[in-house]
Amino acid sequence: MTLDTLKSHSRPTVLRLAQRKALTARKIVTQGLYSICRQSDFTWRYMANLRPSLAYQRLRKPLSALHESLLADLKRDGIIITSVAALLQNSGLFEELESAAWNCEASVAAQIGQARLDMDKPGTKTYLFTLFGRQLPLDPESIFVRFALQSEILHLVNGYFGMLTKLQHYNVWHTFPTQEPARESQLWHRDPEDRYVLKMFVYLTDVDEEAGPLTYAPGTHAQGTVKTAVAANWVREGAIEVRRSDDAQMEAVVPRKSWITAIGSKGTIVLADTRGYHKGGLAREHERILYMCMFASQASNYSDVFTRSVPFPHSSDKAMAFATGA
């Protein structure tokens, strides 16, 4: 091989390396700027998320009296507990969601059985089995996508953020009962993905006090009135260290009597801004199965988990198009 040939072969490699370095540098700068912008609602909204904020002001529609009331409660407390029947016009989608979830459960029954046996072994969240992996198909035909993109849900979510938002994640969670002490997300914590992080939980089973319900400290979200820092301990989870608080540390800031525990029957819907302090999944007697989806702003530092092998069809619904990146 001649010197000229060697040079020609090396150029693409050098170019790719330079491109990767440029992308890495741009990502570092972007994340640095965003970490500054997310310190206040104003900079987060009008610097990091200016375009979706302005677009929402143009596209926003009046909400029903019920949805306005739910939105006001969500802004005040950081959490609301409602139901499929109250929130959604098309309850048939819940039946489709439920059927699809049970079919998925049946298809991985052996793995669930093994996970149930292994739940108290050392490891990260061994008490929680997720039906889907890290890469999720953003398929317009999937009920797990369509359920999240219903207009009533998007209007409520976007109204809370005050901007158009992105669907960032979905899954089905199966929680196993354990008698071990609380650990990981069973302890008080705040999710890190954005300044606002809105998760919707749809119960596929009844969830009582013994099934590990979400517990929330109202007012600890960005829009809330509780600004006192909660003491926390650094604990190692897998390869990283994270901050977790116990009940006594939380009670020093938010009285226990104010905590909201999201118990409910099958068909209950919980919307919670998980940037507020919360804990959940400490089931003692009953298994808990629920559908979860998550919304955040376009500036979120959450890694994209979606695969898009099937393109979304063109839609005149700009909120849906923005949510899916269509």
Note down, in words, how this protein is organized:
The chain is an alpha+beta fold. It has one domain (63-324): Jelly Rolls, CATH 2.60.120.620. Helix content is 38%, strand content 18%. The strands form 4 sheets. A 6-stranded antiparallel sheet has the order 1-10-5-12-4-2. Helix 1 runs antiparallel to helix 2 (41-48) and helix 4 packs across helix 9 (151-161).
Please give the structural blueprint:
Layout: H1 3-37, H2 41-48, H3 50-59, H4 65-77, E1 79-83, H5 84-87, H6 92-107, H7 109-118, E2 128-130, E3 136-137, H8 143-146, H9 151-161, E4 166-175, E5 198-203, E6 215-216, E7 233-237, E8 240-244, H10 247-251, E9 260-261, E10 268-273, E11 278-279, E12 288-296, E13 306-307, H11 318-324
- Structural class based on helices, strands and sheet pairing: alpha+beta
Helical coverage, percent range: 25-40%
Strand content: 15-25%
Number of helices: 11
CATH class: Mainly Beta
Parts with pLDDT < 50 across at least 5 consecutive residues: none
The domain count comes to 1
Can you identify the CATH superfamily?
q2cbj1_9rhob like domain
Jot down its keywords.
three-stranded antiparallel beta sheet, 11 helices, 326 residues, globular, Jelly Rolls, alpha+beta, 13 strands, six-stranded antiparallel beta sheet, single chain
Question: What's the short version?
Answer:
By secondary structure, the protein is an alpha+beta fold. It has one domain: Jelly Rolls (Sandwich), CATH 2.60.120.
